[in-house]
Amino acid sequence: MSSMRPRPPGSLLTRTLRLLGVSVLAGAMAAGIVLPAVGALGLGAKTAAESFNSLPDVFKTPPLSQASQIYDADGGLIATVYDRDRTVIPGDQIAPVMRKALVDIEDNRFYQHGAVDLQGVLRALNKNAASGSVAQGGSTLTQQYVKNVFVEQAGSDQKAVLEAQRQTLGRKIQELRYAIELEQTLPKDQILTNYLNITFFGEQAYGIEAAAERYFSVHAKDLSLPQAALLAGIVQSPSMYDPVTNARLAKQRRDTVLTKMAQYGSITAAQAQQAISTPIKLQISKPRQGCITAQQGEGFFCDYVHHVVVTDPAFGKTATERQALWSRGGLQIRTTLAPKAQKALQQSVTSHAYTTDDAAAVMSLVQPGTGKIVAMGQSRDYGLGADQTEINLNVGTDMGGGLGFPTGSTFKPIVAAAALEKGTTPDQEYPAPYSMPWPAMSDCAGNTYPENGEVHNDSTSLTGPFSMPDAMAQSVNTYFAQLEADTGLCDVSKMANALGITEQAGGTKLQVVPSLTLGSNDLTPLEMANVYATFANHGTYCAPVAITSVTKPDGSNVQVPQANCHQVMSTETADTVTTMLLGVVQDGTGKPAGLTDRDSAGKTGTTDESKQVWFAGYTPELSGAAVVSDTRSPQDLDGQSIGGETIGQAFGGTLAGPVWRDSIEGALAGQPAGTLTTTTLPGGSGSDG
Q1: How far apart are the first and last CA of the chain?
Q2: For FRET with 456, which of 90, 178, 418, 514 sits at 20 to 30 Å CA-CA?
Q3: Which long-range contacts (CB under 8 A, 24 or more apart) does 209-214 make?
């Protein structure tokens, strides 16, 4: 028999803490009782008590992170998105058998004790002392709930999560302090409901509703006895008792829960035995979340909505506040996306350019007068696989998009609008030879660009003189170079700014240089669709909007970004541009894109070496911009196989035009045709109506 050496006074504290956790000490202090060991604890207990009393009185519980839903304009679900898959539900939506199962396995005296269960603490003390390890804990469900709150507050910060889970003296004192407060302020049933909504059940499921749907494809209110027992058993160790990966251990744990339920009288022995004899029958609903689950090419619009929420000040003054709103979730986000228009656009872009083509077709549709984005898509699928991308080519890098595309001659109507606003009339003529030196001009900062270099038209036979309507219809570069010079680069850039174009898609400064009129800046389909919507809306610009309402979990509404419609050019100027663009699709370069059953106006664009081709246009009801470009390694589109056809010579009217035409026709099918307002142009073309 070995000799026994006396232990130093401090060793008893150390041994006690190791075996019990601090819950024993805390329980003793809270109850005002004295265990035999406490007399030897001395200053340790005093310090713990001081720490306990110094904690803030108010226990703040964060809003639980849960899933958000994004809906289209008709109320259809686009996607469910979340940081944590959780749906918070009230207590009456949780099956009573589920509540009983959890209490019986985790804290069977939950309704008899306060924040601390002294019987449980002493039982844990005896069992742990006998085993020489922490074989049983003494924490109540209320204390466990407080711990879960600390973990929830840590969010996705793994370091903070680990800190929240550490079994330290300070942490245990915190748990106890706030558990006492909760027991004084909340009914037991509500504490249990809160616990069931916050706790993790494995397989990415947070809270009982998500767990019921994940494992059994039912709501929490419909859980059966065997199902409830299985879920209650998972809580102790979601990885160990995961029925998907550890079916044998999960059943053992479930059967233990059923045995406990019978022992405590929640069910009969016969019910327990019948449930124990029932094999585990899972009906897994795999987590499907995020924009990648969206259909009809809506993933790109879904991604755009996400970026709006985390970037627009309407959703929070700081980036941290906006990200917190998105991460907490529980939002009902209703958007402007029109399913009929989206289906038509998606069918058009994917039929005119295949997913496997080097070239991609990209298009956005906007409603004039409201700024509502009604459709957005591209021929590449949304995703990370082969021939897929998560880069939304309709928007710039700040909104999850790309670097944009040179717009070619689709920029010319902006120059025309600036000229008309300055007093130039549509009958302004220029000689417009096939080729000429760039005229001298200067920008708003006084930087001068002397007469230098050559600007030329697309065809040697395209020579003047021209007036503005004819130059627009035939997209005469040398005409618009002279018009830009006489208008002034500064005024042209100011008009572009007023129409929402303030920088290039990649975030770099707008290049206010002579080639501005030829569309040398990299812009996006959404920007250009919105520019043309302004012409359709008689000169009133509306900022593009994607979200109509956002409802928080508590039913309150978030103020969403507004279109802030305002006049940026005279009605006469806008309608004159419309009249000229009507001519483009009737008799000019845009004729292949023209609609046969309703008024339409638009402009083609073809960049250097035909690397990009555009068509931007509108009806009274919709405005859209389509671009086709080799997005893998920008090369000449001539000779490429696009949409199953080998392209001889790529032009905006013949390649991008049909993408626009088919989208608009499908989106507006069955709707009455409106009339574009026109003005009288030189030679008597156009009318007032």
Answers
A1: 112
A2: 418
A3: 209/86, 209/87, 209/88, 209/89, 209/93, 210/67, 210/85, 210/86, 210/87, 213/285, 214/85, 214/284, 214/285, 214/287
Percent of the chain topping pLDDT 90:
69
pTM of the complete model beyond 0.90: no
| Residue range 229-233: mean pLDDT, rounded | 98
Nearest to 262 by CA among 252, 254, 272: 272
- Residue 25 pLDDT level (bands cut at 50, 70, 90): very low
Which residues contact residue 121 at a Cβ distance below 8 angstroms, ignoring those fewer than 6 apart? 20, 23, 24, 27, 28, 138
DSSP for 238-274 reads: TTTT-TTT-HHHHHHHHHHHHHHHHHTTSS-HHHHHH
Q: How many CB atoms lie within 10 A of CB 448?
A: 9
Q: Please tell me the distance from the alpha carbon of residue 360 to that of residue 350, in angstroms, as a whole number.
A: 9
> In degrees to the nearest 10, what's the CA dihedral of 343, 345, 351, 353?
-140
Bin 558: left if φ > 0, else alpha if -120 < ψ < 50, else beta: beta
Q: Judge contact between 195 and 182, C-beta under 8 A.
A: no
Where residue 99 falls among pLDDT bands split at 50, 70, 90?
Answer: very high
* CA 27 distance to own-chain centroid: 46
Q: How far apart are CA 59 and CA 553, in angstroms?
A: 21
Pairwise CA distance, residues 97 & 257, whole Å = 12
3-class secondary-structure state, position 218: coil
Q: Is the pLDDT of residue 165 over 80?
A: no
